[in-house]
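Class, discuss our next protein.
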Amino acid sequence: MENSLKKWFSLVAMSLGVFMGLLDVTVVNVALPTMQKAFNEPFTQLQWVLNAYTLVFAVTLLIVSKMGDMYGRKKVFLASLILFVIASVVNGFAPSLLILDIGRGIQAIGGAGMMSLSMALVASNFDGKQRGLALGILGSVIGLSSASGPLVGGLLVDAFGWESIFFINLPIGIIAVLMTIRFVNETPSYGKDQKIDFIGMVLSAAALFSAIYGLIQKETHINLAWTDPKVGGWLILAVVFLGLFIFVEAKVENPMMNLKMFKNINFIGSVLVAFALGSGIYAFNTYLTVLMQNYIGWSAFDTGIRQLALSVWSLILGPVVGILGNKLSKKWMIVAGLLVSGAGFIFLIGQLSPTMGYAQLWPTLVMIGIANGIVNPVLNSAGLEGVAPEEMGMASGLLNVFRQFGTSFGVVILGLVEANRYADVVSQHAASMHLPEKLTNGLITAGPFSGHQIAFSDALSKAPFAHELQKVVVNAFDKGLIQICYVAGAIVVIGAIGAAIFMRESKEVKEVIE
């Protein structure tokens, strides 16, 4: 009984770490305007508070996963947790934007370790039906932390200032550290007699850095062509580094990543679902928040409250689907969940209008929330089936890498879809309104996010054409969001088809490492 209770306390410790690590990916969004005033820096510079975390998080995921597999996942998880808390405190006291950016990068190393190793630790601390339930609960925490960022951030920033979004990690982190030391069981050090594959680590980091940085460049400079060296050059470099990584891993005696993992077709299916989840659902949430705050006009706090219709399902469904995953087909639960999210996107297409309110929006939030609440927990459990114990850290790291890369990819692709449709609509209406060419070009160049600020600025609001122009900008955003819904819907449907084709039932999954 005591041992069983210890296991569940260990799950609490790991859940606290994951909650902090993922919350800090989204919580900063609502604090950026306040930070901009505090540091008196242009918004383009503030973006690196987000990008530094995203970039380092993705780049270090596989490295810390491998270190955990080699030297003990509890040790590396604990070190990551402590690093994350220390960096959080440094961020709260940051005297300049540069220090904050560096602190965010260091914080991301800790976040990557907590995120990638938590799943593997749960898988090794639990077994049988309890493992499915525990991974389901962890999945609910993952979904809740990602979705509740705007609400938590809005509350903290309004009440205590932007520094509080970092200082809040100190008490939570101390509790998580003490609980990890006391309750989490260590895993064997599978690689204690192996040499570290430094070349593999460098090449994997270089490939991920180049890919994510290229996408960030496209996101922040949306008018740059894919063939521009600032974008395409980095993406080509990523492919080169990936090819070198695969070549090296196939040759070295103790590779960082055992490429035989990809002979497990169930794992390939899980990776495809992770990418679809990131690029379809998580990336869409970025534009959903813009719709709610910029175009409908709700505050960050009010937006967070209304988004509970999306995020609460992760908390409710995680344990339930963890149990059901032991009785029902994980594969078909994932397929059903992704199709539900697709239905949510299609429903929103019929509801979008300049006068829409919460009554037209909440059904979509519920459908996407239910989908995330089903898919995320089951994916964690299904993805680790058939993976050798010594590879579980790397496997969970890969799932997180594809989820994170999918999100970065999706934000860029959906952003391009929105920007192109927005530009078309503004151009069409500008001609009939006889707007000055300079103003039209300014609205198009500013894009759907900053274009709203221009159209509703005090200076333009006094113009005789202001009201009609504002209607055009809102309509242009809505038209773009309709296109986003089609693309996001297609992504999750492709993910569902991929799951149906590649994923296997539990009894069909075989060990791929002999």
